[in-house]
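worker-03 picked up job from queue 'complexes'. Input manifest follows; three sequence lines, order preserved.
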Amino acid sequence: MIVFILAILLFLIGLYGVLVKRNLIKIIIGLMIMEYAVNLFFTLVGFREGGTAPIFSEGLSDNVFFVDPLPQALVLTAIVIGLGTTALMVSIAVRIYEKYDTLDVRKIRKLRG
Amino acid sequence: MSLLPLFVIVPLGAAFVTPIFSKFWKGFSDWWGNLASAFLMVLSLWCLRFSTETIVYYAGGWEPVDGIPVGIAMVMDGLTVLMLIIINVIAFLVTLYSVNFLKNYTDRGKYYTLFLLMLAGLNGVVLSGDMFNLFVFLEIAAIATYALVAFGVEAESLEASFKYQVLGGAASITILLGIAFFYHLTGTLNMADASRLFADMGPSPAVIFTGILFLVGFSLKAGLMPFHAWLPDAYPSAPASISAMLAGVGSKVLGVYALIRIFFNVFGMTVMPSLLTIFLVLGTLSMAVGAFLALGQKDFKRLLAYSSISQIGYCIFAFGLGTPLGILGGLFHLLNHSVFKSLLFFNSGAVVYATGKRNLESMGGLSQRMPVTGTTSLVGSLSVSGIPPLGGFWSKLIIIYAAVESGHHILAGVAILVSIVTLGYYMKVQKLAFFGPLAAAYQKVKEVPAFMCISMVVLALLSLGLGLLLLPQLREVILDPAVKVVEQGMGYAEMVLGG
Amino acid sequence: MRGMTLIVKSITQLMAPSILLLGIYIVMHGHLTPGGGFAGGILIAGCFVLIVLAYGSEEAKSEVRKWRATFSESFGIFLFWFLALLGLIQGTYFFYNIIAKVNTGQPYHLFSAGIIPLCNIAIGIEVGAALFAIFITLVVFKVEENL
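worker-03 finished. Artifact:
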């Protein structure tokens, strides 16, 4: 139970980073922390007491108790999705720096209304 | 029935081949992109013959064991066929339009690659019968969209794309957290199986929290009112063909379709009365505030973006009424809005192509030199405002009638008022941009090239003729199966698993 | 970006092949041990990124060709798409494990589990090439404009 609360706390730390920080790179890092927190939470959902890693290998006894393998497969996909999103955001941030000469969010405001 | 994976396989394969060959042969990506989207359009119109039955396809051949699905399911029912037609027809018209429109942009190969990836993602979202599969295809479409909004790399496009990415990324993470809770509650990811399990659970706080997470995530993708902040920046900064695809298809599939599928079919009765109230509130707020904010805009595409918020508010308002007539009105308005909003974005793209400007106050009298653009934009504007006998009139009539019939008289009055305001600002656009004396700087503008004209004329004809969809023969094939799927709610489980 | 000192360059020359070998091992044994295409692909990309970091971007510009990275990436993902399509061509389902239905192989050995090791190899090539392409586009071939 306490580990779930800690994972949600990590999510809230990332959310604080996205909302409060002014540097573009810090906003990106805050979003990454949010993603990792949700992936961690999802893996923890699949935990079963007394289970081992869900891989069949030689010499395993017949009635062995596994943890749930489905969240682990889904989190693998979600990590790769997070990688793609982060890579795209970082390249856009690099181009914004070339055009605006600053990374401060309060100064990048050409669109309003 | 192996037609179902083709909707995802064909655009994915085409997208992977395009970067290699477009380096050798310059015109390759145009031909290839148009061929792929034309094939998908024909395939989706062919699927109309299956619209009344539910087809389930298990990828990898993993059939259900003891009635419990263990594989990834792709499901095609009436609602899916309607959304597939919307996606693929408008995608074909957008690729046709892009052949001429991309003259000012540098890299066509990358544009078509990203566009085909987005098309594969959108098709995958409507075809998936599995919660995590929906999320993966949603992310594929969303990442392609982030890159396409920043395609013309000026300063404003980059800023708009970054803002869109932060907000869209936060929404996707919220949806993933909702899926984690969903899996913990039901132990399965298949939507039909979870629908059966939710019917036995009552409205416990965990179910309500999961519902709120999904509501926040998908409302942000749809652009409903408290979560709309990315929309007025992203739609103007994208190239006009991508704005047409985003506004006409993207916000509907990624937002409204996912909301309907999850809340009406999967959660169903457990969240029902309060959910309809939430939809009514969000819909009315989006309708009213979107229309009033659009009144003061001077930028053509920004005005169209606020108008999109307002019209999506109409659709969600119609779904919040809860009656079958309301659902019919909502789905029909969804179809109408795809057609005329894409048409209006095409017109704005034609104006930018010819004159290079988007500011309404500096244009004037363009319809003397650009007759096709002027006429089609008049048709589109009248259809949005709800003037008979164009398509928009019929769908708004059904929505307002359904609102009066279910007792929400004040909200029906608000809907009529918003429609009059819509007519007001679209007539302002027409007067400032197309009618009136021709400004001196624009004496030499010409009509836009052939492919762009063809796309605009086809969409104008469709928006003139969409009122005919209410005739019984056409309605039974296209609209009624979709209404039946949404209306039967948790009967979705029997259709998918029993049949 | 300048290169690093001589010690770093020598150690990189010794270590980079081992890292590449470890990555290939994780990709190939994806159906027996944890890992698979994604994790192994990232290690493969890590090997190339290490070499570029140690020698500096000036030397890298003359040796690295961007079209090789993007071509390998497209080739890898196209191979994966084609493997998934083989089931559909043969008349059964999409993503069907056609090799395993014909010849299962011995469990817990390297040649088993049908189509899965081939898919892992395709994904390994694709992820490695994609990450390397992102790195060299942002770092080595960045465009300096004065606006």
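worker-03 released lock.
Chain B has one domain: 6-498.
Chain B has a mean pLDDT of 87.
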